[in-house]
Design a protein that fits this description.
By secondary structure, this protein is an alpha/beta fold. It is built from 11 helices and 12 strands.
């Protein structure tokens, strides 16, 4: 039996769908309050849904009954300052519990981390799996939670766990809707006026799912892989989206000081309204930083060729 945690989320649902399309009958976890993803509705007969929470060990024990493979896609994600410590605690403790249970039962795991947990490369070089985030200087709650969760998997591997780790860049796809990375497309459609100088990696959600499944089917263990379809300057990305949506592309450069003003304003508004800020300190500053990711390790490991980012952008725009 194959288990997918976090299957109601953007990536988890795609992993579940890909597994079903390959002829598998799978088990997926969901919290009691979570809704079934629309993309999985046609495959209800092939999916055994169970109520489970990574913070509830007993529910995980039941979910893991008869399981031989786990795709761990579950994570608590929030930009709210008040959620920073709970997010770190939840993601790390939940991962640690799952790691221990899988290790005890001889279950193979593919763990979803993030490039947020990967460090910086020297100027002019691409970021690889050999770079590591410095926990003594990092302040972003999400990055810390991903780094410390990944460290729990490395602990498990040292204790005998059969596992690999994937570090996706920004995952995009039509099924995101207007949530998560879908906000980028929604913002451009509604009339984005400014762009930043930064560069970041993007990858199709289907490619991430396919890479995870391909890795699961190998005998590779104790490795991490950056999953990146291509690097894009934000200006280029916004222009591609705008052209696809037949709207005006942003033409004004948002300088770093302007981004500082933006995140502070968003934080103040979020404090007044109790809502998540549209942009936080970390993402505001990252928007002006050049981060290019090297995907050669995963391509070599499984012989994978990524879908062009431009093709995914077109698909998302056509579905909007």
């Amino acid at each position: 039996m194959i288990l997918v945690t976090g299957a109601t989320g953007f990536l988890g649902a795609e992993v579940a769908k890909e597994l079903v399309l390959r002829g598998n009958t799978i088990r997926c976890t969901k919290r009691a309050s979570s809704k079934f993803p629309a993309i999985l509705q046609p495959y209800a007969a092939q999916i055994d849904w169970v109520i489970a929470d990574l913070m509830n060990e007993d529910s995980l024990i039941d979910a893991l009954d008869g399981v031989t493979q786990v795709y761990n896609c579950a994570a608590f994600v929030s930009l709210k300052a008040a959620d920073k410590e709970p997010m770190i605690r939840t993601n790390v403790k939940g991962t640690a519990t799952l790691v221990d249970l899988c290790n005890d039962r001889g279950i193979r795991m593919v763990h979803t981390s993030s490039v947020a947990a990967v460090g910086e490369a020297p100027a002019g070089e691409q970021i690889t799996e050999k770079h590591h985030l410095d926990p003594t200087t990092e302040t972003d709650g999400y990055a810390i939670s991903k780094l410390e969760s990944e460290m729990e998997v490395w602990r498990g591997i040292a204790e005998g766990l059969d596992a690999v780790i994937v570090n996706p860049t920004i995952i995009i796809g039509a099924s995101a809707g207007t949530a998560g990375s879908g906000q980028i497309f929604d913002t451009v459609r509604n009339g984005l006026k400014y762009y930043t100088r930064g560069t970041i990696g993007f990858v199709d959600v289907q490619d991430v799912a396919k890479c995870m499944i391909a890795l699961m089917e190998t005998d590779i263990s104790g490795e991490r892989y950056i999953i990146n379809g291509g690097n894009r300057a934000y200006k280029q990305l916004f222009e591609e989206i705008a052209n696809c949506m037949h709207v005006k592309a942003p033409a004004k450069l948002a300088k770093p000081w302007m981004m500082e003003v933006a995140w502070r304003g968003a934080a103040f508004w979020g404090m007044l309204t109790g809502s998540a800020p549209a942009i936080d300190k970390t993402s505001a500053r990252a928007a002006s930083v050049t981060r290019n990711f090297d995907n050669s390790k995963i391509k070599k490991a499984i012989g994978f060729e990524f879908r062009p980012v431009s093709d995914t952008i077109k698909e998302i725009c056509q579905s909007a």
